Amino acid sequence: MDPILLRCHDYPFLMRRWRKVARAARLEMTAFAEADGFPVWRLASSGADEGGVYLSAGIHGDEPAATEGLIGWAEQNIPLLRRVPCLVFPCLNPWGLVHNTRTDAEGQDLNRTFQHDGVPHIGALKAYLQTRRFRLALTLHEDFDGRGLYLYELERRVPFWGEDLVEIARPLIPIEGRTLIDGRRATRAGLMRRKLTAAVLRRFPALPEAVYLHLHHTVRTFTFETPSEFALDQRVRVQVALIAECVRRMEREAEAAPKRG
Ligand SMILES: [Zn+2]
User: Fold this and answer.
1) Cα(89) to centroid of ligand 1, in Å?
2) What's the CA-to-centroid distance between 63 and ligand 1, angstroms?
3) CATH topology for 1-39+49-58+70-134?
């Protein structure tokens, strides 16, 4: 295993790596809030409010392929980060990452708190987003029950990408075979495509980040779920490959879009 992955719960180390990325890619890196005694950071390019990509990891602290996949992708894509408008939240639950725990220090699942502003750093994140719009949002996760990779695609823009993304992952890791995940039926193996209808939203009284983003800020929204029981370096490679493919597609879509104004 890559020795760097042995430090996947070392938050200061992770942020040192991000500081290098920020310098090389000319991103502004800001500690925008504090959570459970840790600074919470965001990285932004100056054009981030003009329709780029939103990337976020580590809202669940026991999902290290998410935080490692994001920094791994960023380290490999400095020229792209200079070019593509982006807003990055490298780790939204530092206490959880350090303690290898899903929740924050109070036992809250932060990915169920986007409906209110009671969690200060989630409220600060939402306030910062206010008028910002993104072509693409990727929220990176892992699943302890996962027997293979699966992903959520929130429906809006066609053509959908979900089927192709599953094929990108297939050579790298088994694809989830369960057709029922958290009591909900898969669109097909490895893919949960969801339309945010009123009926679906009733099932989300406690809003996850991806649903909140899709309702208010983004055109395309995906959540990747790598299976925690597989080797960490393999899970990281899958996250990197999926981020890379989505950002490539977003760039192509942006180039093809008619210029406004
Ligand atoms: Zn998660």
Assistant:
1) 14
2) 6
3) Aminopeptidase (3.40.630)
